[in-house]
Amino acid sequence: MIKNYVIMKKIKLVIFYLSVLPIYGQRLGVNTVTPTRTLDVNGETRVRILNEITLANTNSNRIMVANNDGTLGASSVKSLLYKEGLMQYGHQLWPSVKIGKSAIIRMAGRIACYGSDFTALFHYDSQTGNFKILATTRAISQVSPHVIQVQSGCGSYILTFSPSVGGNGFYDIISTSNWIQGTINTIPYPY
């Protein structure tokens, strides 16, 4: 009697594991025979009901985004809408600054020559290369598309905006003068 009970318990356990095994570790494909993620949908997706979530009534600060191959992921709102960077002593490059088609840019720092302080707020249109100076502590002028000149206590230096390798709205900002320290913040418009 006890022996039969143990055998039945083992059989039930094996049946349970065999029934659960196909669920775990598998990928489900909709309109694809080779799914690459847990759920891989080859086609349009529709969600009939989406409840509104605002940052005011939840602690959520991430939104769903898709990369070029359609893989979904989450990104913080700040990383999509706001980019900041720090330039340290002796450097002349802010790499991979998110600008998109255009951006409002705030720069602040101290350039190496005589420790000249510099702050500026301007709009940059990456498609035309035009700048609109909104506020500054130094004389700034546009030299050519994508290039501005900043006057400082020891002369002037040039800032060139150049698309980063890989593009996607990211730009490298190159300076002709070393900076002691500098920060940049951008609010990009969609691209």
Outline the secondary-structure elements.
Elements: H1 2-20, E1 28-30, E2 39-41, E3 62-66, E4 72-76, H2 77-81, E5 83-87, E6 91-98, E7 102-111, E8 116-125, E9 130-136, E10 140-144, E11 147-152, E12 155-163, E13 170-188
Parallel strand pairs: 1-2
Antiparallel strand pairs: 3-4, 5-13, 6-13, 7-8, 7-13, 8-9, 10-11, 11-12, 12-13
State the CATH topology of the largest domain: Immunoglobulin-like
Number of strands: 13
Main beta sheet: strand number and arrangement?
A: 9 strands, antiparallel
CATH class category label of the largest domain: Mainly Beta
How many structurally independent domains? 2
The string of secondary-structure elements, in order, is HEEEEHEEEEEEEEE
Gross morphology is elongated
Rg over CA atoms: 27 Å
Measure the end-to-end span: 74 Å
Number of helices: 2
Query: Residue-averaged pLDDT, rounded?
Result: 75
Give a quick summary of the entry.
The chain is mainly β and 191 residues long. It has helices at residues 2-20, 77-81; strands at 28-30, 39-41, 62-66, 72-76, 83-87, 91-98, 102-111, 116-125, 130-136, 140-144, 147-152, 155-163, 170-188. The strands form three sheets. Strands 5, 6, 7, 8, 9, 10, 11, 12 and 13 form a nine-stranded antiparallel beta sheet that branches. It has a two-stranded parallel ribbon with strand order 1-2.
